[in-house]
Amino acid sequence: MSSTESTMDKGAVVAGYDGSEEARKAVRWAAGEAAARGCGLVVAHVVGFPPVPEAVPGGGAWPRPGFLEAGQETARRHAEAMLGDIAQECRRAWPELTVSTRLLSGRAPDELARAAENAELLVIGSSGLTALPRLLVGSTANELLHDYHRPIVVVRTGEADGDRNVVVGVDGSETSREAIGFAYDFADRHGRALVALHVWSDLPLEAMAVTPTEHDRELIEERGKPLLDEALAGYRERYPDVPVHRVIAVDRPAHALAEQAEGAALLVVGSHGRGPLRRALLGSVSRAMVHHAPCSTGAAKVPYAHAPAAEGPWRVAGDALAAVPEWAKPDGGFWAPDVARLPDGTFVLYFSAAVAPGGEMCIGVATAAKAEGPYTPAGDGPLICVPGDGGDIDPQTFVDSDGSRYLLYKSDGAAVGPPAAIWSQKLLADGRTPDGPRTELLRADLASENAVVEAPSVVKTPSRYLLFYSADTFQSSGYHTGYASAPALSGPFVKAGTPFLSTDLLGGEVDAPGGADVVDGRIHFHGWLGGGRTARGMYQLPIGFPGDVPQLG
User: At what angle do helices 108-115 and 139-147 cross, to 10 degrees?
Assistant: First the structure.
């Protein structure tokens, strides 16, 4: 990997991918974690020439499927296509996530470790194409756990049930403290409770086969409580919203950890533990902090965050959508959610999702009694799914002064040929039923828009309707926010001569601003963070409308 790539990957989440279903789940876990952290995702695949078989219990070895007869160039083309497919899957599921790929050559453990030397986190599957599914870790994972010096997550394939806590092993060592810090941070960002587990394991393993007496338990708890108190000191003040459950157990460490991790979202253990803990879960583990996910933990369908004020601090609290609609692909992604409140107090969630089996994006609707949900999908199919549009996305509600309700959205024509367009669909009072034909408000017809207009939002001033929209490709420096005005919501909308928000207009302080929405005298929008374009953050600025013209400040 070049020094340029290493710099680009700094602070990203790196995921190893070999084309297996286990690795795919690991990549999706990594994508969700990268999105939650606000950083980029790098998907890396390593091709070895000649292919190196992995060990299989029973003495044999299986070569990687598809590579046995393939030459180097054929293998590269196959790998590039495979990387492209998984990257596109992640972009569809997390549209604001920056996803890049790396095709590497050599030994998988060595190359993945080098690729992730500046990463925030390395994520791998528990077994690859050639490993049996019930093995704890495959050979690549096992070697990385032994030699990799930075945080690593091993994602298992089982489905998690229960409370989905974050479990951390606590033994008083320095790496245990690092594990506690990671576990607290993960639990805080994902709205999880934390289980702090101390396993009293100084006795020989054979002694643990004897059930301890009540006196033994009281003595062990008496000795273990100060250790837990000291280990958790400081974190409780830093993460006051994370509930913590303390557990002191007398058991084989692996068994105690496995029991607590059943149904958990994440299991976190240190690498250089005290006594048998360091070997409890993954065999010989040195120099690496091990964050082992005991189940497949894909990201929420529609994650939501809450804050005491618009300025924050914002905290991810959970998944707003209770279930995947029957018409939608469960792994096709859920885009651009928008919530509106109906006169009867019901909350309505609009979102884009991929239609099964074709995968075209359409707009669905769900309802809930509270703003945060859980939202239950409504109807037998999508609310808006127009043949020939190339997909319908970016729903945004607007209620006119007479109470009429409209849904604005984008037809993604740029994906199939015609430029994208923004439409308005009037709805009945229930917010779930179209009322009459739709109306085209504007189309991507300027060279600076690069065939893309999206993310519509309407503000009504005393005499005009102002339509804010994003234009140009999302990944480019030319991505910007424009606006158009009209005497009525039905148009005709006339575009302003220049962008309203752009990198240059904001003095370079925000890179590629888009996704604008005006609420209570402030315009909220997002832009790239830092110089590497690995994550986007939310911004806000005061806005006014003197003479029916938007103006910052």
Answer: 50
